[in-house]
Each structure stands twice: as structure tokens, then as C-alpha cells.
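Handout, section B. The chain below has 81 residues.
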Amino acid sequence: MALILTKHVQSEMIRRRLQLEWIERTVNAPDWTRPDPLRSGVTRSFRRIPEIGGRVLRVAHRPSGADIVIITAHPDRNAKP
């Protein structure tokens, strides 16, 4: 399985100073997940990231064959399990 990053998430990673490792951790071992209410087939995965002060990272992704397309990622101030 490979992670495929959209151009949007690539620019968000630079703008928000997000590490690929944090996104990988969030997708591979989330604290919790929810279906995206706006996009069919998209999952939102959430994980607390110690490197950003324990804030919750939200990653929206969808399967693409054996791979996973990462649509967006950002710290989510309002995330609650």
C-alpha cells in the first residue's frame, strides 16, 4: 500500500508544516475515524500528534485500488472522538 498525496495536501503540508510521518501514522493507526459527511467514499482519520503539542491531526483519504489517496490534512481544533 502506498500513500498518494494530492497537490492540495502537498501545499497544505508546506503551509501548515505537517510531516509525512504524522499523516502516515494518522492513516495507519488512527485514534478514531469517521466517514466524511460531504464526500462519499472518503474517510476522516484522527490522531493526536505529540510533536504538535498533542493537537489532533485530521486526514481525509480514500482508497484507490491497493493505495490510499490523501485528500487533505490539518490540525482540527474541534475534533472529539
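Note. Strands lie at 3-5, 32-35, 43-49, 55-64, 67-75. Compare this with the example in section A.
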